[in-house]
Amino acid sequence: MAICMTSLKRDRNGDWFARKGIPKDIRDAYRAAYGKSQEERFRRDSGLPSGRAKREFLDWLAEIEDRIDRIRNASSVQTLTQRQMHALIGRWYAEFTQERTDPPETAEEIEHIYDAYEQVVESGCSTLGNPEDFDESEERTPQHAARVRAFVAAHSDIDAFLISEGVGLSEGQRCELIDALENDFVAALGVRRRRALGDFGEDTRLRRFPDVSDLARVVRKEKLAGWTAWQAFEAWVAERKPAASTVNRWRGVFQALDVAHEGKDVALFTAEDAINWKNSLITEGRGTRTVNEIWLSAARRVFGWVVEQKKIPKNPFEGVKVAGPAKPPKTRQDEFNDAEIKLILNASLAPMSPRIGEQLRAAYRWVPWICAYTGARVGEITQLRKQDFQRHRSGFWFITITPEAGAVKGDKFREVVLHEHLLEQGLIDFVADSNDGYLFCKPASDTPIDPLNPPRPPHVIARTKLADWVRKQGVEDPRIRPNHAWRHTFKRRAARAGIEQRLRDGICGHSSGSVGAIYETPSLEDIAEAISRFPRYDV
């Protein structure tokens, strides 16, 4: 049998139009909840732009299909705790007390409902004929309780509300729910009467009800993602396979997120949860920048991926940031000054203790010089291998910085020509005399690793030790980064030497942001000519 799909069309008068049929098996329940049973119709003015009409149509269709799903889900009986029941009453109360504007209700209409309610309540009084003697504390008979319950159910629209929420209750819990909301029903009538008279003051009764997220755990099982925050991170790592450094930085974020929310399903995270967690992150040892760039960025990225997997409708961490003080004023340049350059490069030429490992001694000796003449990231150099050094047919030597050797930003290889001063110092002789493989660090172990707790790669360990070594040589200014400053130093010296920006960016692996730059990648010959004009470091 052919399936009739709901589609957006033009009506005869040009209006945007669509129909969505209501399945036969739920028409009675749909009518009770939404007032229609055969079909729902979508209509927008003919002048509405096509793109906007399609977006509004898809939103409308999603809402109708969600209603149908909720009604079907309500056919399965669920059990609520007392807290969840009162959370459900709170949701009903908030909806029931909304202002009626189409048509607007009058105070007389509300008073009529309340008078009818009082009559039903007093109809069970044991002193019939003497309503003045009515005692509210008198226990209701089963018959009297059933009459009051039926009245409250009919005038509170609770059954339609339950259907719209996708909540199915046993008859016993339904009766318990209606009995529990009776006082709130009376209070809600009072709120609606005040609003009909023009009093729109705050309704403080809403504060009594518990958080509805607790309710969602039971009444919307079909909406759960099946992942805690940690499990979402685990799934993200398995698919995206991020760098080990990213996993190590973010692992603690999701462990803390899981603990703080007691393993709650990611579908139950609310924007309020995100805000509350954000507010708890600022501590004496954790500043605004760390919270924004690591903790909240990690949560936002992974929850955004969960949205892409259609596990949750929206990202609760989207737009959540810590408002902190402005960055401290910049009081020096990012490049090394002449004294620091001489201090580092001279220290690299000095004899080193034999207790330092051979490859680490080589890193202290050569990596600062290679960075100084290439502007490469230190990690790109500490992962260089013997085969990454090659001689061009024109005679100059160059290195290949490639993801095959380790982490490279953007996963893009590039080739960088070596300055003749490096050759004069014997760099190529050092490479030729070295064993195959990595020059400045040991190869990674072949032992299987835990993807959620990977060890630091050897080139990262070498990079960290090199930064510590630079500090020990006397470069102690906290405003300068002991490794990364070589990139700034190289680019500024290259600019002062008249090397054009296209070549400087190509050597350092920077992107200009222009599409045309893809077609203007400098050749090795171009780079060789530029490097020949780069001034020597005088140490």
Oligomer: single chain
Low-pLDDT segments = 126-131, 216-222
Per CATH, the class of the largest domain reads Mainly Alpha
Strand content: under 5%
**How do the strands of the widest beta sheet line up side by side?**
1-2-3
The overall strand count is 6
What's the domain count? 4
What gap, in angstroms, lies between the N and C termini? 85 Å
Secondary-structure element order, as H and E? EEHEHHHHHHHHHHHHHHEEEHHHHHH
* Number of H- or I-type helical stretches: 21
User: How would a crystallographer describe the biggest sheet?
Assistant: 3 strands, antiparallel
Helix and strand content put the structural class at mainly alpha
Overall pLDDT confidence: 86
Named CATH topology of the largest domain: hpI Integrase, Chain A
* Computed CA radius of gyration, to the nearest angstrom: 35 Å
| CATH architecture field of the largest domain | Orthogonal Bundle
CATH superfamily of the largest domain: Intergrase catalytic core
Helix fraction?
A: 40-55%
Overall 3D form: elongated
